[in-house]
Amino acid sequence: MLYNHTVKDDAYTPQPELVSPTKTPMAEPIELAPDYYLSNFHALVDFVVTRYAPLLSDEERSFHQCFSALDTDSQRLYVRLLSRKGVPTSTGALFRQSKLAYQEIHNLRQAADTLVANRLFLRDPALDLTEILSLFTKNELLASSNEPLPKALKRPALEQALLEQDHATVHARLTRGEPLLAVQAAAHFETFKLLFFGNLNQDLTDYVLRDLGLFRYENYPLEQSQLPFKSRAQVERHLLFYSCLAQAEQVLCEDAEAISTLAAELPESVEGDTTLQRRLDRLRLALARQLERLHALDTASSLYLQCQRPPARERRARIAASQGDTDSALTICAQILAQPENEQERAFAASFGHRTAKKTPHCDTWPAPKRYRAPTHTVTLVQTDQRVEVRAAQYLAEIAPGSQCFYVENTLINGVLGLAIWDILFAPIPGAFFNPFQVAPSDFRSADFYPQRRAAFTQRLAELKQAGLDDWVWHHFGEKWGIANPLVHWEALSEPLLTLALSQIPTEHWLALFRRLLDDIGQHRSGLPDLILFPAGGGYELVEVKGPGDRLQQNQQRWLAYFAQHQIPHRVLHVEWGTL
After folding, report:
1. On the CB side of 99, how many CA atoms lie within 13 Å of its CA?
2. pLDDT less than 50: residues of the chain
3. Residue 335 CB neighbour total at 10 angstroms
4. Which CATH class, in words, describes the domain spanning 226-365?
5. For residues 21 and 439, is the Cβ–Cβ distance under 8 A?
6. Domain parsing of the chain, residue ranges
């Protein structure tokens, strides 16, 4: 069996269904300066030097000083190539100087000479033929051969044929005195990127998106005392994590020994650095899961034991049960139930514990978990090219004249919460914001999000209970429209929809919904019903739509059970397709 081994860190990226940073029409196109990239590079580097100078190594400070002393053309050329992929080699990303042409660089050859003199470029590095072949076209490769080769040869076969010839001769014919340039000191810029973005997934593109007006970000404070990195050792551990992450995709395709070796190379966590801990947990979970697939169960269980986030305990319980150790499996389930990390983990422990206990004399101590069955109706509709949810919304509005039905899915309830707590979401919590380009605080999807802001959330919910939602929601709707927020999908929040929702959903229902969302915002912001129905006589109803063959997902079932506990009107509408 083949598995998808792509492993990413947990740097927050917006989900399309929840975030629409801005759709504000612009009066006229924004034209960037020809060397906009250099201004952005300076802004990033200067931000880091201003705030993190004591954490930089001597080499990184020298890199900054050297670059700052360069003439403008040289700076432009360096940043141009630093931002391009190039051909990866043992000496750095490689480029052919003859293929470089930038209108804003007035004397490219002189700029290249200056960069070589300052050791930011390496000219004609000593490289094996295998490292430079991809720089050249197929026709150039054919012309470099010591003997005629068929033009019909596919590129891999052509390269292999050249590698079987004298490397020095082929190398000389390919380059013919043409300078090859290898970019140096890229690793230093990686450190600057880490300190600025807090991860190595983002790049200078974020500046461009902002400058073009495509993304708008909240203007939260970035005081030095609240920035996440506090020591050089902390920086080094983050860099080591990313080095391990880069190896993970290949290692996950190898054997258990290779995976265990990589796991042993992971850095230790840093006290108080929850971001690093989350990233380490995420990678360990991926490594341990593959160890399970390779049947290295004891090694996998030991690795899960080092993780602090779900589903580590779940996997350990499953491993113990698969090995016949039901007592250990039940002990882990009991530990989860005593102190669950989230609702999903609690549900697993109750269900798996019951199934496991049935194999032991202690089955009476593990009752079957109760499963809520929501009110369900089935209708037959004529199929069109519209989504089933849209057809269901039309049907519900048609059968009750004067009612209104909206297809909202996860956007309405999340969006109203995002507007009601906007200022708390972007409050300057230590370690929450690395740079000006964050859609959300770095801990948004983590278990730390609510506890870090507990007092502020408690106070806000009390204010909403007393005065209602209108003031906070409409204030932020008017003041913040178009600014990125991980809970707010602006295009889905029309004023008529908000007006109906705020007037016809009781405040106590909003507060109940908010409490569950805030309890585990990473998990609970999905699975909400597809439709909201506003009957002509007042009130509302949440409707989950299921088309032919579709079934409720677990997160949807948990939301429906929660609605029942809090008397929130809801139902499931099964749609079957029929004919006129």
Report:
1. 11
2. 1-6, 12-27
3. 14
4. mainly alpha
5. yes
6. 36-211, 226-365, 376-578
